[in-house]
Structures are given as C-alpha cells and as structure tokens.
Amino acid sequence: MTDHSVLLLEEPNWCPLACRHAIPEAALSWLLESGSITQRLRHECPGRLRVEVLRQAWLRLFFSEHQLLKLNPQHRHLSREVLLYSETQAWVIARTVIPRQTLTSLRRGLDRLGNRPLGEIIFASASLKRHRSQLCQVPPGLWQPALQQRLDLQHPIWGRRTVYLLHDKPLLISEFFLPPLWTR
C-alpha cells in the first residue's frame, strides 16, 4: 500500500479535454458527462448502486494533484478511493481529494460519507461549480497489483478528473470508467 493511493502505483498522464479525439464514442459519453455520475449510473445501470470504500485516509497527494489544487506538497489531505457497483458489477473506480481547508470550512460531513456516494452530497448543492477537467488513459501496469488482479484490469482504462468548487472551496474527483460500463 502506498502513501498516495491504493488504486494507482503512480499518477497517469493527464491531458486537457482537447485530447479526446482518440477516445471511443461510448467511453467519451461517460468522460464528458456534465451531471452526476452517481445519478447516471442509477438511471442506466441495472440493480442497486453501491459504494465500496477501499481507503479513506489523510495522504500525500500525487505531484500533479498538488499543482492542480495549488496545495503545499508537504501537507496531507483527505483522500477517498472507492469502487461504484451495480449489484456485483464494478462500473467506476473513483478517487476524491478533499483539501484540509475545504473540509474544515464546509462542515458538510464529507469526511463521514461511509458508503454513501459523494455525488449525492455535492450535486445537491446550488453552489457547486465545475472548474477544470482533464482526461487520461491508464495502462494496466499503473494500477496497484491487488486492484488489477481483483478487477482483471488487462486493458487501458479511460478516466477523467475534475476540480469542483463547493462554496468556492476546491475538491478533486478522478473517475475511471471500467469497460463493462461503456461496452455494454
């Protein structure tokens, strides 16, 4: 287990939305979704949506996360890494970074979500603003071995990360869409 993530051995190469020309259309639909992924999963995927928290801890961030959120690389911030399922099928791998100052100023229970989807909380807020999004393709070798084996991650996985502002306080959500979701 690393000090950065139980999902990734190292951070993927993120690119601006303009690099989307090589992405399959079905995956692009999920990557460019402007609404709540939680709501879309509930609408489009059979079965009950559930969240499995893999780890929630105060961690050091990846270099680009510090840069994107303009945070001191010496500080730890709350990181929540989860799998989103419909019944037994994993659809999305997600990582949320909540800077300490965001958590303390909002007092919305973001550190006590348990198995509740984060999207239920943030998309219910009228103050939510999408600030910046980026895309990536994660090759199989970048996943932590235990996760790679558990989910049989043998092919590249498309992902996006978005900085949201909630009452003008930043949080970063990275979502990786598993092929069964967009190839069905």
Structure description:
The protein has 184 residues and is of the alpha+beta class. 24% of the residues lie in helices and 34% in strands. It is built from 7 helices and 7 strands; from the N terminus they run βααβαββααβαββα. It has helices at residues 25-31, 37-44, 63-69, 100-106, 118-122, 145-151, 179-182, and strands at residues 15-16, 49-59, 77-86, 89-98, 129-138, 157-166, 169-177. The chain has a 7-stranded antiparallel sheet with strand order 1-5-6-7-4-3-2. Strand 3 (77-86) and strand 4 (89-98) form a beta hairpin. The radius of gyration is 15 Å and the shape is globular. The mean pLDDT is 90.
Helix percent reads 10-25%
Q: How many beta-strand segments? A: 7
Residue-averaged pLDDT: 90
- DSSP strand (E) fraction? 25-35%
Helix and strand run: EHHEHEEHHEHEEH
Major β-sheet annotation: 7 strands, antiparallel
Poorly predicted sequence stretches spanning 5 or more consecutive residues: none
For the record, give the distance between the C-alpha atoms at the N and C termini, rounded to a whole number.
32 Å
Concise account of the structure shown:
This protein has a 7-stranded antiparallel sheet with strand order 1-5-6-7-4-3-2.
Main traits of this protein?
seven-stranded antiparallel beta sheet; 7 helices; 184 residues; alpha+beta; single chain
Secondary structure topology:
Blueprint: E1 15-16, H1 25-31, H2 37-44, E2 49-59, H3 63-69, E3 77-86, E4 89-98, H4 100-106, H5 118-122, E5 129-138, H6 145-151, E6 157-166, E7 169-177, H7 179-182
Antiparallel strand pairs: 1-5, 2-3, 3-4, 4-7, 5-6, 6-7
